[in-house]
Every structure is written in structure tokens, then in C-alpha cells.
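Most newcomers find our protein records easier to grasp once they have seen one. To make this concrete, we reproduce a full record directly below:

===
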Amino acid sequence: MNLRRFFTCLFVAACCLSAWAYNDYRNAKVDSLEAALKGKNPPKGTDLLRAYDELMRGWLPFDSQKASEYGHKALALSYELNGLNVRQNILRFFAQMHYAREEHDEAIRLFLWALAVVDTMEQSGRYTQRDIDDARSCTYGAIGNDYNIQDKHHLAIHYYHLALPIFEKYNWTESQTILYHNIGELYLTMGNMQEAERNYLKAVEKGTASGDSLMMALARKGLIKIYTRQGNYERARQVAEKCYAYYHAHRTEEPEDYPVVLASMVRLNMMEGHENLAAAKTYAEEAVGLVDSLLFEDKSDVYAAACELAMAERQWQLALSYGLRTIRPDSLATTADASCFRMLAEIYTQLGQKDKACEYINKVYEVMTRYVTDHYQLGLSQMEVLYETEKKEAQIAALDKERRLDCWLMTAAAIAIAALMAGCVLLVVVHRRKKALLVAKVALETETSERRILARDLHDGLGGMLSLLRLKIEKQEEALPLLDSTVEELRRVSHHMMPEELLRSGLVSALRDFAVSVPGAHFQTVGNVRLKTEVELVLYRCAYELVNNAMKHAKAEHIEIQLMQETRQVTLTVCDDGTGMGETAQGMGLQNIRERIAPYQGRLDIVSADSRGTDINITLPL
């Protein structure tokens, strides 16, 4: 992995994550915030949430453990206060911590969780479009960086392309410059010179507009390689003059890039018809001297240029010395490795060592075979991930397309029956109904995604910790019953936040499984009930909410759950023998249920009497 690309990725993350701007390196703000938390009037509510968020970011440069502690406090409080913007920011913070430790699977999982929260932000209607776009582009850029560092080029480019339109929308030129450069680097690595050149040129254009001389130089460094490989001397020379001028003036500030630029200057002065071996030798000696005297992660490109020059001068022993130093221990095969082995095969042939020459010819074949296999498998796995992602996006797009088609048809109908005002009113009602259904489906999908991730964290993380704690305190018998009930409650909550049984086998199986887990509950079904997934999720959430209310608020001992499907409707009934609802019929989560079923034209009927229990019917038309 090229160290410059690693730092470039981190630089992109810093530029993209504008919400993380916090540079009080004297720690004054952190100290004052902690003093406020311990004062007589500590912050509460959203003020406390903001304080935890700032303390998390403020401690990051100094103490990652304390930063993590405040992050967890902020995350917990964000659920209590429904602070979605802070929540997605904290999730990105945790993802970046895993990213820095090269725990990439966990980092990607948290980034995707953050995206699910951003989707929820958009559906909530409580945030400006700029805040939503900022959060979304930050996360897209961060995911692209993570895949970039893993050499998963297709996935990295995909997420960079998702971030770019948002950067262009708000004219965030610096961020555009960095992403265009990164995309150019990825295409260059993949061997797609046309796309690499296009993106490098866009980076130079945006860098000129923003005045970012470093990013312009980085893009030009890639362009020199492209034009040299194409044999386009004039374009290579024009770009190289500007690039070399920048790096020569900043050689102590950019110590890793300067030798790479010198290597490009070596090759520029060896191009056919424009050979200047004396100049090439001067650049080569400076480049080799720098990489020999300093610590560099990847010196192979400089040694390869020096080897090519020695071969041009027919200094075979010197060429062999440089050629052997181009061999890299990287596990992932590259075309650069094949070029290195090809040069060594030619050198050994000139030196009369035929066995060695044959050995390296075989290595060329082996590395190219491995290159094809490695990149085919890597590309295939990336295509599978992209297919699943794009399939979900296509489903939502199809819903939106259906809504737009309905609007067009309704407009045409309205023109045709303009004289019939009743018809116009009906069209408006249908349009609003369709729009509400689309919004509900998208909201349900994003909520489902977030619930699935949170449920896994609850079950696998906290659940495991509690089980381990039980083993450690077995001798303290008085604590065990409480701990056992805590573990059982946790499992119940995590399971029902995202019921995998529903996704696998449907609503009937999920409700039957749910009833078994609730003391005193029984479930029965009438008819062959199997509905659309989003409808089954809505009914399951309603059943869970009603049973939970009956247990906690009505103190019910027996609960009957019934699901019945008829020709034109499906009905969910929950009956209990509790204390009744009385004046609380407008509360206890019923508003949530009404909001869930409203887009589906559902009806909620309640029959309740004090000390005589409650019967609740939810009916959805099919």
C-alpha cells in the first residue's frame, strides 16, 4: 500500500467530514465543558448532547479512550432525545476509529449504519437539506476512503461518485479536487488511462479554482505517468515542468512524492527521440540518494527508473543491483511486479545467466496469472456488493417512478374531466395517498436497516457481556435472578427490534414465535396470511407495541393475538384481561400505531373498560 495514498485518504476524510471541525489543540474548550458538566447547573437535554459530541471530538487528538467514552454517552443520549444528526456523526466517529486500526469490516458496518440514520433524518422533516447532504456526502466520502485503502477500487469509485454530485451542488471545490484526484489514482491503478486522465484533469481544474497547489501537483504527477506511457512527449514535458517546479520548491514538505516525480523526470528524458541520458542520470542519482537516506514504504518505482537508465547505458551489473531492489513483498500481484521481473530476465540474459533469466521469465508468467486471478476475485466480490446496493436503490427508484407515472396519468385525467370537480378532488386524494405510501415504504426500509444493526449490537455485544458477568458472580446468589431477567429482557428486545423470523418465514411464523416468548400470550391465525414485506413489518410492529402496552401498562396476565386475512382486508386483533385503558387511550404508543397504518389507509378500533380488559382491532385494506 502506497503511503502517500494512505495519507491522501486521511486528508480526504478530514476535508469531507466538515462536521468534525475541531482544532482547539490547547484543550481549553474540553476543560471548560467538563467543568460545566460538574458544575451546579450542568447542561441538560440537547445541550448535554452537544456537550458530549464536542467532548468526543475534543479529546480525540489527546486521549482516544476518553473520546470513546464521551462518544458512547452521546450515542445513548441521541436515542433518548432522537438526535439523529449527532447520532450519525458519532457513528462516523466510531467508524473512523476502526478504520485507523485497519478493522475495515467493522468500519464499513458503522458507516452504513450512519447512512441509515441519514435516511431517517431526511424522512423526519426536522433537518435542512444542506445538513442532510453534508452528512450524506461525508459518509459517502469516508466509505470511499475505506474501500480505497483496501484496494477495492470499484467500490471506492462508486462511493466517491455518490459524494461528487453533492460537492458540486454546493460548490465545495476543495472536496471535489480531492475526490477527482483519488478517482484518477484508482483508474490509473486499474489501467484505465482514459478515465484516469479525465479525472486528473478535472482535479487540476478544480484545484486551480480553489487555489490548492498541492492537489494540482498530485494530479499532474499522475498525468506525467500517463503521457509518458502514451509516448506523448510534449504533453508530458508541459505537465512535468509545472509538477517538478512545485515539488522541487517543497521537497522537504513532500519528501515521499518528490523522489517519485524525479523518477518520472528520468523516464521523460529517456523517451524515444528526446533522449537526454545526462539529465536522466542527474535526476536518477538525486532520487536514489533520497530514498536510500530516508525511510520510505515503497521505493520500487525509483529503483525501477534507475534500473531502466542503467539498462539504456548497458551497465548490466548496476542495472541488476537496482532491479533486485524493485522486488516487493506485497501479497497482491501488480503489473509493476511483472515489469520488474521482465527487466531482471533481460538483465540476466545480457549477463549470460540463462538459468536466472528463465527463472524470472517464469516469475513474469506466475505474477500475471496471479494478477488476473486476484483481481478477478476481488472485482467479482466488489460487483456482488454493488449489485446488492444498486438493487435496493432501484427498488426505491421504481417506487418513485411509479408515483411519477401516477401523477402523469392523474394530470391527463384531470384535463379530460376538467368539468367534473369531484373527479379532480378524487385525483388529488389518490395522489396524496400514493405519495404518503412511497414515503412510508422508504422510511420503513431505513428504519429496518437501522433496527437490524442495532439489534445485532445489543445481542452480540451487550448480551455477551452480561452472560460473561453472570459467570463471574455465580457465587453471589442474590444477584443472579436479577441478572438472568436482564439477559432475558435484552434478548427479547434485540430479537423483536429486527425479527429475523419475519424476514425468513413471514408474519405468521414471527407472531407465533413472539407469542411463545411472552408469558400468558397465545396466537392464532385465520386464513392463509402472506402479505407484502412492508405490510407484514407494519403489522408486526403494531402487534409488538400493543402487547408491550398490555404487559407494562394494563398489567395483563392473558393476551390473545389473532391475525385474519379476508378477500379485501387483513385484521390484527390483540385482546387482554388487563386494567383497561381509561383516559390513556390517546397515549401508550397508539399514536405511533396510527402513524404506521395511516399510509395504508388502515383503521384502528378500540374497545376498553376499566378492569375488564381491552380489545384492539387494526384493519388494513388489501
Observations:
- Residues 354-416 form the longest helix (63 residues).
- Confidence is low (pLDDT under 50) at residues 1-27.
- Residues 1-170 form a domain with the Serine Threonine Protein Phosphatase 5, Tetratricopeptide repeat fold (CATH 1.25.40.10).
- Residues 348 and 356 are 6 Å apart (CA to CA).
